[in-house]
Design goal:
It is a single chain. With 95 residues, the chain is mainly α. Helix content is 69%, strand content 0%. α4 runs antiparallel to α5. The longest helix is centred in the middle third of the chain and has 17 residues. The chain is globular.
């Protein structure tokens, strides 16, 4: 909830600057779930571009994103959440 108005700019900065965001994996996943489709896409892009992600955060993210997909009503955001789920599962070797 904090910095909501600047979130998209902050997210874009993470991947444009190639910053290591792996320590913020849980926050990025939460932002993807809470935010709109564009924010979800930005979070996905940041996470996809990380060399490694902490396994514990990824496993929790899989659970949280799966629950968010079940409740989602926006098709575009649903597609973004689905892509995020695929990315997270790939990081821990799950299909």
């Amino acid at each position: 909830a904090e910095l909501r108005s600047a979130r998209k700019t902050i997210l874009a900065t993470f991947w444009n600057a190639g910053l290591d965001a792996s320590a913020h994996t849980e926050k990025l996943i939460a932002c993807a779930i809470e935010g709109d489709a564009e924010e979800c896409f930005e979070c996905l892009t940041v996470l996809e571009n990380q060399e490694t992600l902490p396994e514990k955060a990824v496993l929790r993210g899989i659970k949280d994103v799966s629950a968010a997909i079940a409740k989602n009503t926006d098709d575009y955001k649903g597609a973004m959440l689905g892509s995020l789920l695929v990315e997270l599962k790939a990081r821990v070797g799950r299909d």
